[in-house]
Amino acid sequence: MEDQKKEQFPEPQAPEPQTFQDLGVSDALRAAVEAMGWEAPTPIQIKSIPTGLAGSDLVGIAQTGTGKTGAFMLPALERIETGGGLQVLVLCPTRELAQQVCDDTEELAKGTSIRTASIYGGVGYDPQLTALKEGFEVITATPGRFLDHLGRGRVDLKNVRTFVLDEADRMLDMGFRPQIEGVLREIPRDRQTMLFSATMPHGVHDLASRITKDAVWVQAAPSGTKAEGITELVYSVKPEMKPDLLLRLLEDPAWEQVLIFTRTKAGADALKTRLDREGIKTEAMHSNLRMAHRTRALERFAEKKVRVLVATDIAQRGLDVEGISHVVNYDVPKDPEDYTHRIGRTARAGAIGTAVTFLAAADLGSFKTLTYHIGRDLERIHLPDFDYAGAPQAVTSISPTRGRHSRSPTGMGSRDAADLSDEELADLLKH
Where are the domains of the chain? Predict the structure, then answer.
């Protein structure tokens, strides 16, 4: 009878925290949060911060742009003892992400005496040596350069209380496992460990299980979930027509700040040259460029001194620039996970944005895999001047000023290209 009552009258659930105060964040950090414009905690922050504040280990699964930095850094900062030397170590896969996490941490730590530094390769050692010597409380770093300092006896890890692996899946993909293992051998065993990853392949799951103790596992959204406010469009295009299609789309003034992803560094440079020649202010960003150049390119884009940033996948994670109106997959990403990370650069902090993908015939296989992985269809647009399928199709027009699309029947008896399967479209190209 008692069980029946419980089923009919379930015990009321505690209301979900709605503010950073509800989560237990201190007054000093809440003031910094408000100054940064974080009006309410994100789902991953709601699920992570109480566990972090309790000092428990944590494994978080969340896509890029969901507020992961606040999820691990707010509780880490709360537990710092001022003047105790290095107490929080965050390892990141790329220099850009390490610097971004460092910048966010500096903003969060305003009003406190907590000092933050970033350590990564491609730049001089002197500022990093100063930070290590003076005992900054928080360091964000890439594994290679940090292990270099560690091997030279420049790092004192004995007071590290919180160890964070950010974008763990990306770090393993980039071959950083030996460097991560090298750091783990030197870091105190009595610590809090927080691992965040957008995906949880076997390698990451094994690492998370091994380096954490009684960890709480939280997930903000299933893999492949896009942020709200993103409109996704796919343009069928001949490979040689990609630059012309991009220029046509850029005629629309609504394309205010555009981030373009190319598959190769050479492709990024070539596209930048073409856009510069057409009078469109553009910067490029890839690993062949010096760190100073990459930093300058990102700053100019963030400050809206240039309209377009052409980048390889180095920018798909950790790049946090407000106001990106459009993300363009100039090439279909080979890894479906990369698609979600790329388009997550737009529609941040409650804004809206558009993600555009250029689909060539050679990418049909990758595109099928992509749509299967994300679990949704993507609207395809066929423009007669650019479409890779040279067959009768729905007439699709694009306004050179506003970029809106309209379709009207051709009046021909054949099927529209938009109604054909990928296999049928591929067959058209053989004739």
Answer: 2-219, 230-428
